[in-house]
Write a structure and sequence with these properties.
Layout: E1 4-12, E2 15-21, E3 29-33, E4 46-50, H1 53-62, E5 71-73, E6 76-82, E7 88-93
Parallel strand pairs: 4-7
Antiparallel strand pairs: 1-2, 2-3, 5-6, 6-7
C-alpha cells in the first residue's frame, strides 16, 4: 500500500510487532502476531484521513491496491479497500479540514 515500514521485530516467539506509517502522516498503525485476540481479516473500522483524496486513491492504485472509486458524501470523500488479510479500510478527505 506504500506505507513506510518503520519497525518489524519479533521480541519473542509469540509476538511480531510491525509499525507502518502512511507517507506524510504523523500517525502509524501496528500489526503483527500476538498483539490482539482478533482473527486476521476482522478489522472493519480502520480509517485514515488525508488532505487529498485523489492523490491517496492514485497512490493506492499505483501500488497495486484494488481501491474503490472516490465516493463523495456530504460528510467527506472516501475511497475503500481491503488489505491482504481482509481488513476493510476507509480513506477519508474532510473538505475544509487539514488532516495534519
Amino acid at each position: 500500500m506504500g506505507f513506510n515500514a518503520d519497525f518489524d521485530e519479533r521480541p519473542t516467539d509469540a509476538i511480531r510487532f510491525v509499525q507502518l506509517t502512511p507517507p506524510g502522516s504523523a500517525c502509524s498503525i501496528c500489526i503483527g502476531e500476538g498483539l490482539t485476540d482478533a482473527p486476521p481479516g476482522t478489522g472493519s473500522n480502520l480509517q485514515l484521513v488525508v488532505n487529498d483524496i485523489q492523490a491517496a486513491h492514485d497512490h493506492l492504485k499505483g501500488n497495486g491496491v484494488d481501491v474503490s472509486d472516490v465516493d463523495i458524501q456530504d460528510w467527506g470523500h472516501f475511497v475503500y479497500f481491503a488489505d491482504p488479510a481482509g481488513n476493510r479500510w476507509a480513506v477519508q478527505y474532510i473538505p475544509g479540514r487539514d488532516a495534519r
